[in-house]
Amino acid sequence: MAFLGIDIGSATTRAALIDEDLHMIALANAPTHIDGTFETTVGDVRTASSRALEQAGYHVDAIEGICVSVSGMVDDESGRAFSPVLGWIDPMPVRTIARMHISAPVFVANDAQAAAVGEAHYGAGMPFDRFALIRLGTLIEVAMAIGGTSVENDELPAQAATEGEFLLEARELAGKDDESAIDLSGIGLGRIRSSQVMEEARRQNPIAKRAVDWLAGRMAETVAETCAHLAPQAIVLSGATQCDQQHLGKLVAFRLAETRSAIAGIPVECGTLGNEAKAFGAALIALQRA
Questions:
Q1: 150 near 109, Cβ under 8 Å?
Q2: CA nearest to 45, candidates 60, 56, 58, 57
Q3: In a shared domain, residues 174 and 69
Q4: Is position 114 within any domain?
Q5: In a shared domain, residues 130 and 259
Q6: Which residues of 255-280 are buried (b: 16+ CB within 10 A; e: fewer)?
Q7: Is 130 found in the same domain as 53?
Q8: What's this model's pTM, rounded to 2 decimal places?
Q9: Distance between CA 6 and CA 262 in Å, rounded?
Q10: Tens digit of pLDDT for each residue in 102-120?
Q11: Separation in Å, CA 143 to CA 26, 58, 112, 157
């Protein structure tokens, strides 16, 4: 008996297998090909899943439940997902399409929710019964885990910002309109990635520092607004390098204190599973809901 978690990222599709005792059995990946349809992505999912099953020595019939994790808005009741990151500008019937290829129950989850569950059982969230998770990616999202399961309500998961907004903030702080001409310590902002802005902030570049501080403020405000009433014991950062997480963690803690919310002063921890948290978290959600 096994449970399969599929995380469809903008660059990589990951497949994770766990057994009924929550043991991590296998992890495999495949490149993600994006053309706006889930049918194309099915091929990537099949490749990653086949590799994971081969690693574990399992047949597909051993799978008792599947959860597909994507960035964006999801509705597990209908099995649909809206993910502009993947080119799904209309709600995609993920469950319906997946059931054409496998008979096991199929569930759908937001990737921040999946990461929170993964970190709760296998990572930085293990010491805490309840914690908020900030997922860094093309979308910067906030989720909450209580007792090892994700919280889903009218407010959660929530979007704090997008990578595009973060880079736009850096461009605006540079004070120029032509993004291709903007330079941040020798890196053209028209081509820069958020990880590079983070690196420049650690090097004390004043523009990058202000942009990262803006991002930390958005994160802290979103956590305070959506999670404070649930009394999280900590915040876990996921989806960035350890250096970026440590740098951001200090800023988020400082900006959270400024909100004067009930959770000001709680620790901010670095996630330990990286992007694997989403795939293994999705597998756990499949087990929990099957």
A1: yes
A2: 60
A3: no
A4: no
A5: yes
A6: bbeebebebbebebbbbbbbbbbbbb
A7: no
A8: 0.93
A9: 35
A10: 899 999 999 999 999 999 9
A11: 25, 32, 6, 5
Which pLDDT value is given to residue 181? 40
- With a CB cutoff of 8 Å and minimum separation 6, the contacts of 31 are 11, 12, 13, 44
CA distance 25 to 274: 17
Helix (H) or strand (E) holding 28: strand 24-31
Q: What are 78's two structure tokens?
A: 């209908």
Q: How confident is the model at residue 183 (pLDDT cuts 50, 70, 90)?
A: low
Give the tokens for residue 58: 């399992």
Q: How confident is the model at residue 177 (pLDDT cuts 50, 70, 90)?
A: very low
Full domain range(s) for residue 155? 124-270
| Number of domains forming the structure of the chain | 2
Q: H helices within the chain, ranges in order?
A: 38-56, 94-98, 111-122, 163-174, 194-202, 206-227, 242-259, 276-289
Q: Are residues 100 and 207 in the same domain?
A: no
Question: How many CA within 13 A on the CB side of residue 114?
Answer: 37
Residue 113 has a pLDDT of 98
Rounded Cα distance between 109 and 274, Å, is: 18
Two structure tokens written together for 175:
């004070």
* Residue 100 located in a structural domain: yes
Q: How far is CA 284 from CA 184, 225, 229, 268, 270, in A?
A: 42, 27, 25, 24, 21
DSSP 113: H
Q: What pLDDT shows up at residue 179? A: 46
Q: At what angle do helices 194-202 and 163-174 cross, to 10 degrees?
A: 50
- Judge if 90 and 143 occupy the same domain: no
Instruction: Identify whether 118 is part of a domain.
Output: no
257 with 197, same domain: the answer is yes
